[in-house]
Design goal:
Elements lengths: L2 H19 L3 E9 L2 E9 L2 E10 L13 H17 L5 E12 L2 E11 L4
Parallel strand pairs: 3-4
Antiparallel strand pairs: 1-2, 2-3, 4-5
């Protein structure tokens, strides 16, 4: 597995632990729809939470949360809509970003709730 894939996997594991510790019920990880993937789908306080995880080992190029571009957001929203319809879910939906910065043995997690909304 390429180094960047391993870093991404570490970030997702950390994000799941963080969310679960904070009361989120993880429904599914790495859910695919067409060319889109949703990293984490959770339930929290009567809402479906769609989580995009971005992990970096340095802020040299860009902050992880800045990597969730408008086209990426649109793919996530379409995939979330497909998941909600497929599972016949009748709950409000929120889109969050969990930004994970891994530097050596130090890991910083930033959870941005309601980071973007449906724009279709």
């Amino acid at each position: 597995m390429a180094d960047h894939n391993e870093v991404g996997k570490q970030g997702e594991v950390a994000a799941v632990r963080y969310l679960a510790k904070n009361g989120y019920d993880i429904i599914v990880q790495n859910w695919h729809f067409q060319k889109a993937e949703i990293d984490i789908i959770a339930k929290y306080k009567g809402q479906i939470i769609i989580v995009e995880v971005k992990t970096r080992t340095s802020l040299e190029f860009e902050n992880p949360k800045e990597a969730v571009t408008i086209p990426k957001q649109k793919r996530i929203v379409r995939a979330a809509d497909a998941f909600i319809q497929e599972q016949n879910i009748d709950l409000e939906c929120r889109f969050d970003i969990v930004s994970v910065l891994i530097q050596g043995k130090k890991m910083d997690i930033e959870h941005i709730e309601d980071a973007f909304g449906p724009m279709l």
